[in-house]
Amino acid sequence: MLEAADVLQTWALAEEPSADAACLAERLPDHRRAYLDYEGEVSGGRGTVTRWDAGDYLPLPAEGESVVVELHGRRLRGTARLERPAADGQRWRFSFVEGAAASGRSGEVSGSDGPESRGTV
Length: 121
Description:
mainly beta
C-alpha cells in the first residue's frame, strides 16, 4: 500500500519479495487510510490481511507506469520498483533494484507519500 492523498494505492504480491527475482503483483482497488495499520479478516470472506513488514520508505523518481521506493523496513531494505507492462491491465511486477528481502509470507507493499513515511508490507 502506498499512501496517496487520502487513499492507499494497493498491490497484492503473488509471492514473498526476493532480491534475486521479480514477482507478480496485482493492482487492487484503493483502500481507506485506516487499512495502513489493519490486520484481520477482509469483508465478504475474501481472506485475511497480515502485516509482513513495517518501516519507512522514501519515494524516488520513476518513469512511465512505474513506482520506485527506497524501503527501510525490518525485513525489506533497498530500492524496489513496481512496474506495469504496457498491455497488462492490473498485472504489475515487483522487483528490487538493489537490496534484499528476508523470509516470510507474501504481502502487500505499504507506505506513504511524503519525503519519508511509515509503512507496512
